[in-house]
Design goal:
- The protein is mainly alpha-helical.
- The chain has two domains: about 10-150, no CATH class; about 170-280, no CATH class.
- About 45% of the residues lie in helices and about 10% in strands.
- It has eleven helices and eight strands.
- It has helices spanning about 10-20, 30-55, 70-75, 85-90, 140-145, 195-210, 210-215, 220-235, 240-255, 260-270, 275-280; strands at about 95, 100, 115, 135, 150, 155, 170-180, 180-190.
- It has a two-stranded antiparallel sheet with strand order 1-2. The protein has a two-stranded antiparallel ribbon with strand order 3-4.
- Strand 1 (about 95) and strand 2 form a beta hairpin.
- Helix 1 packs antiparallel against helix 2 and helix 9 (about 240-255) packs antiparallel against helix 10.
- The longest helix has 24 residues, at about 30-55.
- The chain is elongated, with a radius of gyration of 22 Å.
Amino acid sequence: MKNLKPHKECSNTFLDDVLKAKNNSKKDPDYKKRVEILKPDVKNKYSTFETENIANNLASLTAHGYAGQNKIDLLKLYKYDNSVIQKLNEEVTTLEGNRLINTCQNCTINEINSLDHIVPKDEFPEFSVNPRNLFPSCSKCNGHKSTVWREKNKSVFLNLYLDNLPEEQYLFCNPTFDGDKITLKFTVENRFAIEQNLFDLIYNHYTRLHLPKRFRKNSSDTIYELNKEINKYANKISKDELIKTIKEDVMEEKIYYGFNYWKSIIKETLINNQDYLNLMFK
């Protein structure tokens, strides 16, 4: 899981560009004209969004209350395959060194195939195409998030544009062994004094997106890859040298994918587990 950098340019200009890319239809030849009428108020709401976004306080936002045709028109602005929105998607998923990531950072399991509205578009149609409200995601995470995004004026999910992830470990996995079968249980714990509000947000994010369960269900391939690497080199280099090499690879992986990347946590846990080592080095 990595933080992404938000859209750098003016949100108002982005709104203008999205509308320009839209087309009126024969059934609705006045669509763009209606949205143009709404734009001044929407841009005023963008200013409010920007203020609260800078303060990382989006949970305090109050919806304009658009309803009826106005709401329909604003929601219609958003379409995942819109050329302007796809350009945004590519922009924010391009990291340093022009490295393009295509894995949902909300879960780090599935491919990106949608954009998450950090502030739900059904409640806030005025922000349906605010670029700083659009975060690359997978449909699985979007489905789990639904419309519940705040409680008691506090966000319940990480905003990976704003919430800086700690380097301290908070994701742990506990292996159990039944012969050569390995079962993992993932937990989110604050063992290393992460600031409490941030940890609570991390815990809620992982719990509400069912990440521990999803990690467990997807863990077999990572275990297999680690087993295969050990079996490949066990007769070529010493046990200690192989373990050292794997630990170094895991550290590089953490720097690349995030310090609590679930696959790295699996490898790190197993390579430090005596039962696993006994199983692999017979």
